[in-house]
Amino acid sequence: MHLPLLLTLLTLLTLTLAATTTTDLYKILQLDKSANDRDLKRAYRTLSKKYHPDKSSGDETKFLEVAEAYETLSDPTTRKIYDQYGHDGLANHKRTGGAQQHNPFDLFSQFFGGGRGQQGVRRGHDMEVKLSIPLRDFYTGREVPFSLEKQQICDTCEGSGSADGHVETCSRCNGRGMIIQKHMLAPGMFQQVQSHCDVCGGQGKTIKKPCKTCGGAKVVRGRIDLVADVEPGMPRGHRIVFENEADEHPDYVAGNLNVVVDELAAKIDTSESDEARRSRNDGAFFRRKGPDLYWKEVLSLREAWMGGWTRNLTHLDGHVVPLSRGRGEVVQPGQVESVAGEGIPSWQEGHVHEHDEHHESHGKLHVEYVVVLPDQMESGMEKEFWSLWEKWRKKNGVDLLKDSGRPAAVVQDVKDEL
Ligand SMILES: [Zn+2]
Ligand SMILES: [Zn+2]
């Protein structure tokens, strides 16, 4: 490690100690007082990785806090002092030379191997999982909890594979993992064959008492809980990278876990009434295309033709987009109204718009109007409409020929229809 870096670290360390965090150590690790050793390790692994200064999500202050909290609580003596006398008790204990502060980066290396910027360390394979979330979550952004099964370093033996912590150098191969066997082909003629040591299986090390949890394998399979931070406007199919969260093994640095966020197909419950369905805002009736949203709004013949209607469209986050036409404002079937600023929030990797003007930071909402004609009328109403049409059709006709834009040969004698 370079001297200036070391000095910086020491300064940071001193600063952290001087400021002596009054935040509860259990809270720093997101645990409560009932946490056992296993919980502590799990919390340390998750949080130290998240805050490691080399990571994009890194936060050096938090990283040091997590290391300090873990060191204090994982030692039964200091944990007892902290539980009884709190931060003051710890400070006293430190003053009297009772506790040794370790380099937080060394602690990190103990857990994950490698170390800061170390090269030539073997790296495990990357993993990929798919996370399907509703369109609403892409719009509002959400921290989506999920769990997955992966290979983890055995907590019981801390990755040694041994029940008593003793790992011995294999006596057959002397730790090389390979043995050379001599075969006599003929008297005085030997052939040397190199092969994996059959005693240690090529590991170079043997364990007398294998760990009961992992059976000496050093790793176990288990579920872990993670949280994917879906940011507002993230594109479908985006890959959220969890650095070093793939399968773990003490012999290599874990690869990355890639979480692909996919849009969940809208579930339509046919037992629900139309009204209930339309008032839900889980996005079942919104469609997304890039930064834009699409919506179909149904109008009656009267509304489309006569105007004088309002609709309160419930958006994905529950806010209301009012749509309306004054009396006499006609909406043609299939007409599309584009509302600026009501599409998907714009999103860029590592950059979330928060205080920008709504219009610039969102795509558009395209509302397509569908006009539904009544297929049944009371006979009285039908008669009245009929005579009304008869009365007005000659006087106030629409020139369909002109409006259709088609050549005269195709449309004939339809000049006087209302
Ligand atoms: Zn084990
Ligand atoms: Zn061996």
Automatic annotation (TrEMBL):
Keywords linked to the UniProt accession: Chaperone, Metal-binding, Repeat, Signal, Zinc, Zinc-finger
GO MF annotation terms: Hsp70 protein binding; unfolded protein binding; zinc ion binding
Span of zinc fingers (CR-type): 141-223
Coiled-coil annotated residue ranges, if any: none
Signal peptide bounds: 1-18
Residue span(s) of domain CR-type: 141-223
PANTHER family linked: DNAJ-LIKE-2, ISOFORM A-RELATED
Protein name in UniProt: DnaJ- protein scj1
Organism field: Knufia fluminis
Gene behind the chain: SCJ1
